[in-house]
Amino acid sequence: VLTTGFGVAAGLALISRRPAAVAMAKAALLVAATLDVVTYTTPSMPSNRMPGDTPLYVAASVIYYGIWLAYLSRSKRVRRTYA
């Protein structure tokens, strides 16, 4: 719930074009990625994944969040909008 709330707050900051919105969005992405990896790799969490599929889910999640982090870090449009 806290991770989702933090993501929503970052999204609202981006919509409002606040100066610290990009940094907040990056932090929210890192928190969400960490939570995903912990959820996928912890055996106590119930899942419907087939045995051996966990590394694929972890890799897909890390790639997804990595792409968004790279976009927020390297995009000229983001720099112009939130500078």
List keywords for this structure.
mainly alpha; 83 residues; elongated; single chain
What does this structure look like?
76% of the residues lie in helices and 0% in strands. The chain is built from 4 helices and no strands. It has helices spanning 2-15, 21-41, 54-74, 76-82. The protein is mostly helical and 83 residues long.
Layout: helices, strands, pairs:
Layout: H1 2-15, H2 21-41, H3 54-74, H4 76-82
Helix pairs in contact: 1-2, 2-3
- Assign an overall shape: elongated
What's the main sheet like?
A: none
Question: How much helical structure, as a percent, in the residues?
Answer: over 70%
Classification by helices and strands? mainly alpha
Quickly count the helices: 4
Q: Calculate the mean pLDDT score and round it.
A: 93
Unreliable stretches covering 5 or more consecutive residues: none
Number of strands: 0
Over the alpha carbons, how many angstroms does the gyration radius reach? 15 Å
Short description:
The protein is mostly helical. It has helices at 2-15, 21-41, 54-74, 76-82.
